[in-house]
Amino acid sequence: MLKYNFDWSIVTSGKYFEWLVSGLKVTLELSVVGIVCAFILGLLIAVLRMSHFRPVRWIATAYLEFFRNTPLLVQIFFWYFGSYKVLPTVVNDWLNSTNFEFAAAAIALTIYTSAFIAEDIRSGILSIPKEQMEAARSAGFSYLRSMQYIILPQAVRITVPPLVNQFLNLAKNSSLAMSIGVMELTYQARQVESYTFKGFEAFTAATVVYLVLSVIITALMDLYNKKVLNPHRA
Amino acid sequence: MEEALNFQVIIDNLTYFMIGRYPNGPLGGLGLTMYLAVVSCVLSFFGGLILGLLSLSRHAIIRHPVNLIINAVRGIPLLMVIFWMYFLLPAMMGKTVPEATTVIMGLTIFTSAYMSQIVRAGIQGIPKGQTEAAISTGLKPWQAMLYIILPQGLRNMIPSFVNQFVSLIKDTSLAFIVGVSELTHVGTQINNRTMAYPTEIFIFIAGVYFVLCFAFTSFSRWLEGRLTWRKSI
């Protein structure tokens, strides 16, 4: 340890720097694709979970409990290695024609995260007083329209901070995609280590990138809390 | 290609899934998963307690660095923490470190940072009047914390600790990456050996984790309900 020669230049310029940058790009792509799909899916699950029809509610709850209580890594392996037996041929063909590693990781991350997001959205919706729905209904809106125009716009506003949190979790969780060969940031850091034996520099670079990402997003969230959620508080 | 699922492969390898080569060889499979989770959980309970108390210290010189470390660990992926351990531990100890130890250290450091937030919230949830009352009866601040605040706070933290334990069980699957033969690793091994049953194997493994984690999640909800009920009377 004491005789270690630091060589930061390998991670600040040249080929290995480009590897890390391309890794960051893949991490961001996975995170953005994941959060958008997970939000849509999570919203759907949250609405189903509040359905008045009991079987629908059960299915949504089962979905939620199952995907929250199994490791993401196992889910990634399932989609990557095992999904071909249960998916229809059309879907398999389509998946094989794309970048399959990326697709499998994106599907796993989306489904895993959607289960957490669904609960965040649900508690957001439940925090809107019941009278709002009653007022909307008596003003002549249908259930769906009341949701669309009255409840959801308010609920989404207060669900933004937990959603941003989920985005950060997703960005960190996307590191697991390296296990199936997706060349994201952690994968590239490890590649740099095995090519140069400069593990300290490579891992420091990746760690700093993750930290900068989370600091930026946390700062944006604080700003949102101040400007949007509590605009009148000094 | 839709194919019929054949779970015979699970039945054939059931003991290997559950305990690895034990007792003729090292413990593996679900047994090792539980071992990793329990050891890391006990260690990170104390780690989290210490970090949580330090992060509430009256002295800024203690509080700020501790908070910085906690937030830094929370800001990076667990996988990164495990790689750091994998890389740093041998260099610091001057000898090779077993993979299982590496993973336990990684899990402990990572989970301690999250546990410290639970401890912090639990302590802050106890009304300030309690500390003031304790100090005015002649207790020193650390005695007030140890004898008055912590016992009450810890009780309220139990459900969150159980939830954290569930996360730990799930997180032990990352031990796969450094080659520790816990449940997920055993699954990929059997998958590599048999080749034809990945779907069955990963559905089974997911099912095992699910049963385990769901049991603890339900337990934590039950505890939470009981604690709220006790507070309400």
UniProtKB/TrEMBL annotation, chain A:
Pfam families associated with the record: BPD_transp_1
Molecular-function GO terms, alphabetical: transmembrane transporter activity
Chain ranges of the ABC transmembrane type-1 domain: 24-221
Compartments, record wording: Cell inner membrane; Cell membrane
InterPro entries cross-referenced by the UniProt entry: AA_ABC_transptr_permease_3TM, ArtM/GltK/GlnP/TcyL/YhdX-like, MetI-like, MetI-like_sf
PANTHER family: ABC TRANSPORTER PERMEASE, MEMBRANE COMPONENT OF AMINO ACID ABC TRANSPORTER
Chain's role: Part of the binding-protein-dependent transport system for glutamine; probably responsible for the translocation of the substrate across the membrane.
Entry protein name: Putative glutamine transport system permease protein GlnP
From TrEMBL, chain B:
Subcellular location: Cell inner membrane; Cell membrane
Transmembrane stretches, start-end: 32-56, 68-89, 201-223
Keywords associated with the record: Amino-acid transport, Cell membrane, Membrane, Transmembrane, Transmembrane helix, Transport
GO biological process: amino acid transport
GO CC field: ATP-binding cassette (ABC) transporter complex
ABC transmembrane type-1 domain location: 30-220
Keyword Glycoprotein on entry: no
InterPro entries in the cross-refs: AA_ABC_transptr_permease_3TM, ArtM/GltK/GlnP/TcyL/YhdX-like, MetI-like, MetI-like_sf
Main subcellular location of this protein, as a coarse class: membrane
PANTHER family in UniProt: AMINO ACID ABC TRANSPORTER PERMEASE, MEMBRANE COMPONENT OF AMINO ACID ABC TRANSPORTER
Protein function: Part of the ABC transporter complex GltIJKL involved in glutamate and aspartate uptake. Probably responsible for the translocation of the substrate across the membrane.
NCBIfam families for the chain: HEQRo_perm_3TM
Family: Belongs to the binding-protein-dependent transport system permease family. HisMQ subfamily.
Name of the molecule in the record: Glutamate/aspartate import permease protein GltK
Lineage: Bacteria, Pseudomonadati, Thermodesulfobacteriota, Desulfuromonadia, Geobacterales
